[in-house]
Structures are given as C-alpha cells and as structure tokens.
Amino acid sequence: MERRPATSRARIAVRRIHLWLGLGVGLLFASLGLTGSALVFYTGIDAALHPSIRATVDAPAPMLDRALATGRAWRHDAHGKWTIELTGEGGAIPARYYPAPGHHADRTMVWFSADGTRIVRAEPWGGYLMSWLYRLHMQLLAGNAGGQVVGWSGVAMLLLLLSGVAAWWPRGRWRKALSFKRAAAPVRRWRDLHKLTGLIGAPLLLVLVATGVLLALPAVTQALLRPAPIPAPVASGTGRVTIAHALAAARRALPAGRPVFVDMPNDARTPIRVRLQMPGDPHRRFPGSYVFLDGGSGRVLAVHDVRHAGTGSALASWVRALHDGSFGGPATRVLAVLAGLVPAALLATGLLHWRRRRRRAIRR
C-alpha cells in the first residue's frame, strides 16, 4: 500500500485538529463573538434603553459632591466605596457603589440626576441586560471560574484559527485557493464560504481573541507583560476632602491628564484615587494612569503615570483598547462589531460543510 507523503499526512492531521477544535469550542466562540459585538457600544445601547438617564446638562465638580452626598445618604458601609464617572457628555451622573473592597460582583450601578440631588436609576451589576451580557461574555455568569474557562478556551480558539489558516495554506496557485466556485457542488460551496469568511476575519479575530485571553487571565498578563504595579498607599485616616478638591489636586499632579473616574472610599484610611487618561493612552474610558490622594489633607500620596511606567505597562494599556476596538474611534469599533459576527458565520458554514461531507461519505 502506497504511503502518503509526509506533507499530506501533516495537512490531514491539521485538518482533523481544526475539525475537532471547531466542534469543541465553536459554539462558545460564536457566543462570545456575538456578545462581544453587542458590548462594543454597550453604554450607548444601555442609555437608549433607559431614557431616564439622559439629559442635556453636564455636572460640574460641586454637583458631583452633591451626588456623592445623596449616594451616601442612600447607602453607606464603613468599608464601602463610591466610584463616580466623569463622562463629559452630559446627562445623568454615572456611579458605582462597592459595599466592600474587592467585591466587584456585588457592586450596584447608580445614576444621579445632573444636579446630584436624586437617584434616577439604581440596579445591581448583572441585573439589567447589558451588564448581564457583560458577565456572560467575560465569565459565562460563573464568576472567577467562568473567567478561567473563557480565558483558556480562548487559547483553544487561537489554535482553531491558526490551524484553519494552516489547513488552507495553498501548495499551488493562490488564485485558485482564494476562489469561490459558484457552480460547484453544495459541499464545495460551503467549504469555500467557510474558507473565505475565515481568511477575511482571521487577522481581526486573532487580535480580539488574544487580547480577550489576556483580559480573562490577569495572571497570564502579569507573567507575559510584567506591567509596573499600581501603588497602594495608606491615607492618614482623618477627615475627608471633596471631589472638587481631589480633582484639582489630581490635575496639578498630572496637568496633561483628563480625569475619568474618582474613587471616594468611606474608610478614611483608604486614599482617594483619581483615574486619568494621559496623552497617548489608547483607551478613553479605562486609561491606565492614577493619582492617589490623602482623604484628609488632599496631599498627593502616589502617582502612576503610564507613560513612565515601562514597556509592560504601555503594552498592557493597549489590551482592552484593541479588544473592544476603541483605540481608533467609531470606525475601529464598527470593525470590532463585524469581527464578532464572524465566529457565528464560521460555525454555521463549517457545520454545514461537515454534515454534507458526512452524508456523502455515508452514501458512498
């Protein structure tokens, strides 16, 4: 019996690996892609679904302090924390209440009126559509264990994409390998659709999946990129400065920065933290620079400027921006939405091609 050439045996092995990886993680890949597409514009979609949080007046710093006072009167925990978001876009003031340090799953999302005097919306994280989709996408609604599943399944998805490219890689004419044969048998047309969809989407999908793995597996990100640690200073434990004072002090410490979030802890021993976007930081909503302030005196305790934190921190600042497409504005975000639809198309065309091949083999 004539033996196949080594290259043919290797190609068959790669195709089998691609098939079994597709059958194993294809449905999860499609689900993560679809939820990821929905989440690219999730704040805008959520605002459209809840007209009560939209208005025409932005809130200056004194109104932020009024909103904080309203929030603390509504819910207070000795070790809790209020995080106020500075959108600069007008409308209600978005905030998050954490009942205790590190309990992110228990946080409550709160929106204050623009004048800070009342709460117009308050819902637990995961208790409304867009946050539920976010938890499904990041953790499969299963907490840290689900995040591990998503992260390590992402490694399998990277292998799935790479094995698909390797299985397709032409040995002869590239024009033939890139063609779509309209008059061919259905099994061949499904194969060509699967092939071309994968080739068009592969570059973006490789970036999205790789960055998704890094977001889902922080320990892996730390080991690979080694970003500089975020400071963890201790405050004096006396007094409490206002948000207006904290923002002014943060701007003096990093004059080129644009404040995005301010953390106001209830425990006076925990410092106030202002998160800022510095020039060159690719993510507008979740930048990587911080100023830590003493809550009693307003004195700057520590500064973490991502521009001077080393190569690892610079690379880490790009992970989320690449994953959600926000680094290039609306155009790249739309590309991220389209790329998220590709895994579902690959799953459908791959399954149809595989089923037709099986039926043809059974008939033979």
UniProtKB/TrEMBL annotation:
Keywords: Membrane, Transmembrane, Transmembrane helix. Signal peptide: none annotated. The chain crosses the membrane at residues 20-42, 149-169, 196-217, 334-354. The keyword Transmembrane applies. InterPro entries: PepSY-ass_TM (IPR005625). This is PepSY domain-containing protein. It comes from Sphingomonas corticis.
